[in-house]
Structures are given as C-alpha cells and as structure tokens.
Amino acid sequence: MDVDHYKQFLPDNLERLTNRVSVLGANGFTSGKHRWTVDVGQGKDWYIGVALESIQRKNTIFLSPAEGVWVIGLSNGDSLWAQTTTRSKLPIKEKPQRITVELDYEKGKVTFINAADSTKIYSFKDRFSERIFPYFAPGLFFPGTFPWRPTP
User: Fold this and answer.
1) Which ranges of the chain have pLDDT less than 50?
2) Angle, CA of 131, 20 and 107, to the nearest 5°
3) Which residues form the B30.2/SPRY domain (predicted)?
4) What is the pLDDT of residues 37-48, one digit of tens each?
5) Does the residue 42 lie in any domain?
6) Residue 18 included in any domain
7) Domain CATH number, residue 120
8) CA–CA gap between residue 117 and residue 96 (Å, rounded)
9) Which domain, by its residues, includes 81?
C-alpha cells in the first residue's frame, strides 16, 4: 500500500506540528487541575501527555521535559516508556487499554493512571510557567485503522 497516496497537503501555519504525527489538544491550561482519558486500544506506537505552547513545531525534538513535553509512550507494541531525559522503561504487567492523564498545573505534576484499575503508571514533577496543552501522537496507521481516541 502506497503511504504517499494518503498524504494530505495542508497549509504550513504556525500552529501546525510538522516534526512528527502528533497534535495538541484544542484547549490549553494556565492553572487548575485537569484530567482526560485516552483509549490507546491496540496501538503499537504512541505517546500521550502534555506539551508547552512554545514547543518546537517545525523541527524534530526529543520528547522530554527539557524540550517542554511530558509524555509516556508505547513502542513496538510491548515496551512502555516515560520520556524522561534518559528515557525510563516502565514496568507493566499488562499493556493498558485506557490511560487517564491528570495535570495539576500549580503543583507542576502530570500523572498517568491505568483507567482499568486506577493504578498509577508514572508521574512527572516540574514547574510550569506557560500554557500547557494535551499532547497526542498516535503513530502511523492506514485510513480506517485509527487505533485510539481521546474519550471524555
């Protein structure tokens, strides 16, 4: 199957992320506590979490707090990682199907929870001083096979 056949040519506006297949949530936060649940389903390679409004959108970055991105991700369908400065492998008994992301802006905390059993997967602790957006990177898939979606 020819992947270029499905490529969409979109305007290169300032907000568009062009360095990887990813999107920021529509609403950003500068205070308060927020949470959302993502259905990661059968995805084999994905990243979810939060990112600063000022992240590099046109150049490739390493997904890490140093670059303004606090995410966890699955690679090769079986390895769960916290994208820290030196990427940390997370111990899991079973691959989560739904993950809740909790942001506490004032405490500088981003927590990831397995929605099935409410167990904590990982937490980042930092200091935020600008707008933060939900970050979603579902990986590459062919049309009709989108493996996950944010859920209210």
Assistant:
1) 1-5, 10-11, 13-18, 58, 142-143, 145-148
2) 25
3) 1-152
4) 998 887 788 889
5) yes
6) no
7) 2.60.120.920
8) 10
9) 23-137
Of all helices (H) and strands (E), which one includes residue 85?
Answer: none
Token look-up 């590099």 returns 56
CA distance 95 to 79: 9
The residues near 125 (Cβ < 8 Å, ≥ 6 apart) are 107, 108, 109
Q: Which residue has the tokens 């990112």?
A: 51
Placement of tokens 């992947």 in the chain: 3
Long-range Cβ pairs for the range 10-15 (8 Å, 24+): 14/57, 15/57
Contacts of 134 (CB under 8 A, 6+ apart): 24, 25, 27, 36, 48, 49, 50, 101, 150
What is the reported pLDDT for 8?
Answer: 55
Residue-wise over 121-139: b if at least 16 C-beta within 10 A, else e? bbebeeebeeebbbbbbbb
Kindly state whether residue 1 falls inside one of the protein's structural domains: no
Instruction: Work out how many domains the chain is built from and give that number.
Output: 1
137 in helix, strand or coil?
A: strand
